[in-house]
Automatic annotation (TrEMBL):
This protein's name: GTPase HflX
Record organism: Wenzhouxiangella marina
InterPro entries associated with the record: G_HFLX_dom, GTP-bd, GTP-bd_M, GTPase_HflX, GTPase_HflX_N, GTPase_HflX_N_sf, HflX_C, P-loop_NTPase
HAMAP family named among the record's database cross-references: GTPase_HflX (MF_00900)
Cellular component aspect of the GO annotation: cytoplasm
Pfam families to which the protein is assigned, alphabetical: GTP-bdg_M, GTP-bdg_N, HflX_C, MMR_HSR1
PANTHER family in UniProt: GTP-BINDING PROTEIN 6-RELATED, GTP-BINDING PROTEIN HFLX
Compartments where found: Cytoplasm
Statement: the UniProt record of this protein carries the keyword Cytoplasm: yes
Length: 361
């Protein structure tokens, strides 16, 4: 946390134009607000093509809001960013060029995102369950990811060490293969431009069968950071996915590594140290116990009045086999996420009721 907070003391909050100009003079830089700073860090960390595009786009969008709002007083001091058209002030030229670049980047990002969505759908069709690691920045997600996959994703004591989602296949975690994803860390008061920029990345999480919330157990701000992450999950619509809380860095606390269960025997949390490897067996047990939980695998019988439901199930690609008996009743073997089943209840009427009774019970 140290890296950013020293600078934040200086720049947090909105500055008046006069304060801003004085700071520009004193420091000789234009990096003056929290968003610009975070974006700067993001720009240094982005590795993938998509990550770089997302950061550049967010930077330009942010710059353009500042051009409109607060930069007129700096107009004469700056060189500007391109050739001035006839009768244009420098500010107008800057705005026009920015708008062009933003459009071009948006178009390129749309394409990249489309390709990634296709990849995600292909994965879903493949039906290998996805476990998504999420958590506040610096909680230890990448270290844990490396432990679980025995791979070497960059783990560092710095904010946003990971910007691009990484997905690996683990052959034998829950007895059967699973996919594990490591994603960008969340942060308190993430400026809304950034939430928008990384929405696509965060939405990877929505495809997960199990969300693993990695929490830095030794963080003095633990409760607040934990709440922030769960609010963001709520925001992107991931609140009703199965969630497992993992308290990492147990080595820095008095708490023993291992499983915590509630009175009903349900796993409440797991304490681990990704750094020392303590608690990893307990974590693996918890993951395999919980990952199947969000899946429904059963037979459903559909009469002729359930044609709509039948076609929706086929469209979702969740039908494993179909047998039609002499009375014309379709017996379908389906395997799907509880979440998808819940969405199907929106069909309402007899279809919704059947989903409720047969799939969700
Ligand atoms: N003592 C201790 N340190 C740990 C543990 N797990 C991770 N760390 C350290 O915590 C720091 C952050 O770890 P990362 O794995 O990069 O954290 P992250 O959540 O991926 O961070 P971002 O990608 O920035 O969101 C690194 O210095 C790790 O070495 C642990 O169990 N114990
Ligand atoms: Mg990381």
């Amino acid at each position: 946390m140290a890296e950013l907070s020293a600078e934040l003391v200086l720049v947090n909050g909105r500055l008046s134009p006069i304060q801003e100009r004085n700071l520009v003079r004193r420091l000789g830089v234009n990096v003056l607000d929290r968003t610009t700073l975070i974006l700067d860090i993001f720009a240094q960390r982005a590795r993938s093509h998509e990550g770089k595009l997302q950061v550049e786009l967010a930077q330009l969008k942010h710059l353009s809001t500042r051009l409109v709002r607060g930069w007129t007083h700096l107009e004469r001091q700056r060189g500007g960013i391109g050739m001035r058209g006839p009768g244009e002030t420098q500010l107008e030229t800057d705005r026009r060029l920015l708008a062009n670049r933003i459009r071009a980047l948006t178009a390129r990002l749309d394409k990249v995102e489309q390709r990634r969505a296709e990849g995600r759908r292909a994965r879903e069709r493949g039906e290998t369950p996805l476990i998504a690691l999420v958590g506040y920045t610096n909680a230890g997600k990448s270290t844990l990811f490396n432990r679980l996959t025995e791979s070497a994703v960059m783990a560092r004591d710095q904010l946003f060490a990971t910007l691009d989602p990484t997905v690996r296949r683990i052959e034998s975690l829950a007895g059967s293969p699973v996919l594990l994803s490591d994603t960008v860390g969340f942060i308190r008061d993430l400026p809304h431009e950034l939430v928008a920029a990384f929405r696509a990345t965060l939405e990877e999480t929505l495809g997960a069968s199990l969300v693993v919330h990695v929490i830095d157990a030794a963080d003095p701000d633990r409760a607040r950071h934990q709440a922030v992450v769960e609010e963001v999950l709520d925001d992107i619509g991931a609140a009703d996915l199965p969630l497992l809380r993992v308290y990492n860095k147990a080595d820095l606390t008095d708490h023993a590594p291992g499983l915590e269960r509630d009175e009903g025997g349900e796993i409440r949390a797991v304490w681990v140290s990704a750094a020392t490897g303590e608690g990893m067996d307990a974590l693996k047990r918890a993951l395999s116990e919980r990952v199947g939980e969000g899946r429904i695998h059963r037979w459903i019988d559909l009469g002729p009045d359930h044609a709509r439901l039948r076609s929706r199930l086929f469209a979702l690609g969740v039908v494993q086999q179909e047998r039609i008996d002499e009375e014309g009743i379709c017996h379908l073997e389906v395997e799907l996420d509880r979440r998808d089943a819940r969405l199907l209840t929106r069909l309402g009427g007899a279809d919704g009721k059947l989903v409720e009774e047969v799939l969700l019970n």
